[in-house]
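Entry 0007
Protein: VOC family protein
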Amino acid sequence: MASRLNPYLSFDGDARQAMEFYKEVFGGTLSLNTFGEASGQTDAPEAGKIMHGMLESASGFTLMGADTPPGMEYTPGNTFSVSVSGDDDAELRGYWGKLSADGTVSVPLEKQMWGDVFGMCTDRFGVTWMVDIGEPQT
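Output (structure tokens):
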């Protein structure tokens, strides 16, 4: 899979409704994963909230979004990040190194519960970036 660059939107509990709306606007395939599915804790208050959503349109658009995770503050006006994802470990680690240099790392680039290597940082210009390295497709 080639690396991909796309917006990643943050929501305050209404990610499902927003992502379904964007599907109506752009068409395509929508996948939604909840915090409960990821953690196995289906009785937690955030269990039904969206941990990760991805819309891929026939026109080649990719839009990702999620509800703000528990413990993180939702800040209106700062509700997007730029996501860089793919399976080329060296390429994506190179991007991470440059983006996080002189910036602030909020999630270190490391293996996550869903299996990918993921990190989140804010670059020196105040732009929030997410880097996700998946397993190479065979």
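Curator remark: The chain has a mean pLDDT of 91. Residues 120 and 128 are 7 Å apart (CA to CA).
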